[in-house]
């Protein structure tokens, strides 16, 4: 891809980042209980306004007033399951973008049935998972252990493209390299740090950030690249300061807060296809 296209795309990434901080979008999150506080804090640090509204009797109306909806199926209770489906229906009716995080779908069969209900009855603009989860949803063999991917990333981009074309959405697979595609355009991000795998919830936080950027950009491919690149760059910077998981977790939120357009422009290692 020409340098002109690359410059245009990274400029759009920067614009999306700045737009989020200007608009402070309301992001409704139905997410797992292990990481709910981290998702709220990372959205606040990024510049969005999180709301962890998941009560079945409230979610339909709350989705109407939200700028985006983030659905994470990691620790589904029965009420959470029904709330997630109902929220996605409301999002479809009210034109609210939805980010779906299919946590542990390759390990727990029930997850797949819930995901299929959301895809059938509601709307999904972005599917963001680890490489094992995305390959599983695309019908390819994958290596997983519970919520973790053990997959080496072979054919990850092909799996993303197939899934994106099947559901007409953006698909992102995170791992040592991150793969994002809308089925036509693709990006491979090589920023990040192994330390992100040493704290619980890094993937969930990325998903929440995807909800934030989806709220302010019509181009969900660019918005997803923006969120994932932001998390990776913040992780790199945090690891330069903090060398152990506990302090890294705190510094990660700090570095999301202090992230700049200039850092996104100058330090992103992205291959555009």
What features would you describe in this structure?
By secondary structure, the chain is of the alpha/beta class. The chain has one domain: UDP-N-acetylmuramoyl-L-alanine:D-glutamate ligase (3-Layer(aba) Sandwich). The protein has eleven helices and eleven strands. The strands form two sheets. A nine-stranded mixed β-sheet has the order 2-1-3-4-5-8-9-10-11, with helices on both faces. The chain has a two-stranded antiparallel sheet with strand order 6-7. Helix 4 runs parallel beside helix 5 (109-121). It starts with a helix and ends with a strand. 54% of the residues are buried.
- Number of DSSP strands? 11
User: Fraction of residues in helices?
Assistant: 40-55%
Question: How many helices in DSSP terms?
Answer: 11
CATH class: Alpha Beta
Low-confidence stretches: 144-151
The first-to-last residue Cα distance is 6 Å
CATH topology label: UDP-N-acetylmuramoyl-L-alanine:D-glutamate ligase
Average pLDDT works out at 93
Order of helices and strands: HEHEHEHEHEHEEHEEEHHHHE
Rg over CA atoms, rounded to whole Å, is 17 Å
CATH superfamily: Ribokinase
As for the number of domains, it is: 1
Structural class: alpha/beta
The second-level CATH architecture is 3-Layer(aba) Sandwich
Shape: globular
Biggest beta sheet summary: 9 strands, mixed
* Strand percentage: 15-25%
Order of the strands making up the biggest sheet: 2-1-3-4-5-8-9-10-11
């Amino acid at each position: 891809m020409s340098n002109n296209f690359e410059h245009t795309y990274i400029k759009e990434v920067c614009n999306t980042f700045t737009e989020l901080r200007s608009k402070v979008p309301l992001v409704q999150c139905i997410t797992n209980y292990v990481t709910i506080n981290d998702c709220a804090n990372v959205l606040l640090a990024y510049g969005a306004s999180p709301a962890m509204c998941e009560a079945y009797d409230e979610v339909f109306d709350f989705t109407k007033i939200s700028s985006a909806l983030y659905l994470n199926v990691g620790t589904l209770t029965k009420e959470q399951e029904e709330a997630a489906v109902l929220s996605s229906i409301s999002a479809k009716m009210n034109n609210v973008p939805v980010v779906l995080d299919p946590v542990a779908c390759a390990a727990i069969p029930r997850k797949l049935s819930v995901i299929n209900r959301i895809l059938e009855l509601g709307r999904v603009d972005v599917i963001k998972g680890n490489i094992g989860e995305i390959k599983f949803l695309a019908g390819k063999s994958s290596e997983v252990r519970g919520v973790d991917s053990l997959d080496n990333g072979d054919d990850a981009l092909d799996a993303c493209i197939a899934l994106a074309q099947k559901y007409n959405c953006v698909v992102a697979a995170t791992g040592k390299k991150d793969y994002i595609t809308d089925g036509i355009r693709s990006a491979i991000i090589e920023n990040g740090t192994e330390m992100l795998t040493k704290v619980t919830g890094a993937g969930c936080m990325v998903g929440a950030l995807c909800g934030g950027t989806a709220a302010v950009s019509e181009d969900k491919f660019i918005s997803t690249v923006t969120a994932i690149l932001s998390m990776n760059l913040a992780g790199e910077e945090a690891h330069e300061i903090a060398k152990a998981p506990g302090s890294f977790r705190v510094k990660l939120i700090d570095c999301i807060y202090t992230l700049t357009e200039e850092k996104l422009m100058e330090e992103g290692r992205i291959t555009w296809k």
